[in-house]
Design brief:
Blueprint: E1 3-8, H1 12-22, E2 28-34, H2 38-46, H3 55-60, E3 66-69, H4 76-85, E4 89-92, H5 100-113, E5 117-119, H6 127-138, E6 144-152, H7 171-184, E7 191-199, E8 209-216, E9 221-227, E10 237-241, E11 244-248, E12 255-260, E13 271-273, E14 276-278, E15 289-294, H8 303-313, H9 322-341, E16 345-346
Parallel strand pairs: 1-2, 1-3, 3-4, 4-5, 6-9
Antiparallel strand pairs: 6-10, 7-8, 7-16, 8-9, 10-11, 11-12, 12-15, 13-14
Helix pairs in contact: 4-5, 5-9, 7-9
Length: 349
């Protein structure tokens, strides 16, 4: 049976994503929406969508099974807790909270209410991420030594609350939350340290870009870079592994993989560079390496809702667990601390 859903927040993600998918969903039935901005409620009504008059009205509606919270980051805590305490299961947009302490309050409320609570990590369904994850899991080029994940744009931070510190703006909380979550789905090992630097090219109040290195106890590294002032983007993914390299230049492209079959070559022919000859940087030949492309995986982002509803029925474990939510939140907290100190910081829970 479909779950009755209300979306709180009829903005970009609320109206443009959650409502849109709910209207054609096989697992949820859209009862309506609510926004603190009456103009957005009127917009919803003009599109044939029922809009509640208040959050209290939403919470008092016994038909409501599930609430999706899609409002500015600093408003998540109160709405999530009130919804859980009212006996509703809750999906919250990312970042789920402004701090681990806030998240712990939400988790406590979920545990007391017995309701399902999770964060909407829709980027787990990105085909580029799924491709690099598949390459790691296949093991053809061995364990990853370093994975570089980048998102580059050239338009700065959107001119709304995302550029304001009080609302939880900035790229660490906006894009970092996704990219950290993705790489922690690949690296299943303890974190040793965090090192982060931020940029403030177009916005002095919050970070408009950042460079984050997560070092794991094995010595493996995850490097994440987000930039909003890059007119020539670097590759989306670059992975150096024990037996080769993988590259995804753009989310629309297939992954390119090169596996080293033989480390030593009997005779390396030097190449001439601008300043002289080099054997060290001479290209490999087809005898010592194997090259191929990985097809783009199939993906359906609405599987997030399918899993969540199954978790509500007790027939599945929720895809994004409280432990995973907490780990990502802690990494972001330590990223801010590292940027403030200007040094790497040890990982501590």
């Amino acid at each position: 049976m479909k779950k009755n859903l209300v979306v709180v927040g009829y903005g970009g993600m609320g109206g443009g994503f959650h409502v849109k998918h709910a209207q054609s969903s096989d697992v949820v039935n859209l009862l309506g929406v609510y926004d603190i901005d009456e103009a957005k409620n009127e917009l919803a009504r003009s599109r044939g969508i029922f809009a509640y008059a208040s959050l209290d009205e939403v919470l008092a509606d016994e038909r409501v099974d599930l609430i999706t919270v899609a409002v500015p980051n600093d408003s998540h805590l109160d709405i999530v807790k009130r919804a859980l305490e009212a006996g509703k299961s809750v999906i919250c947009e990312k970042p789920v909270a402004m701090s681990v302490a806030e998240l712990d309050e939400m988790i406590e409320a979920a545990n007391k209410s017995g309701q399902i609570f999770s964060v909407h990590q829709n980027r787990r369904f990105d085909v580029d991420f799924l491709a690099i994850k598949k390459i790691v899991e296949d093991g053809k080029i061995g364990k990853p030594l370093r994975i570089e994940s980048r998102i580059h744009g050239s338009r700065g931070i959107p001119s709304d609350w995302r550029g304001e510190k009080k609302h939880g703006g900035g790229m660490i909380l906006d894009w970092g939350v996704h990219l950290i979550d993705q790489l922690l789905q690949i690296y299943k090992e303890p974190i040793k340290s965090i090192y982060c630097t931020v940029t403030n090219i177009t916005n002095k109040e919050v970070d408009d870009g950042f460079y984050l290195t997560v070092t794991f106890e094995s010595g493996a590294e995850a490097f994440i870079e987000v930039g909003t002032y890059n007119f020539i983007p670097l590759p989306r993914f670059y992975m150096k592994a024990e037996k080769g390299t993988a590259l995804i230049s753009d989310w629309r492209e297939c992954a390119k993989v090169v596996k080293c079959k033989y480390w030593h070559e009997s005779e390396v022919i030097p190449v001439e560079t601008a300043a002289g000859l080099t054997k060290t940087m001479a290209p490999r030949d087809s005898i010592t390496v194997e090259e191929w492309s990985e097809e783009r995986p199939q993906s359906d982002v609405h599987n997030y809702y399918r899993n969540f509803c199954a978790a509500m029925d007790g027939t599945a474990t929720q895809m994004v667990t409280h432990k995973e939510m907490r780990l990502v939140m802690r990494v972001m907290e330590l990223a801010f601390l590292s940027a403030e100190k200007g040094t790497p910081v040890p990982y501590e829970d």
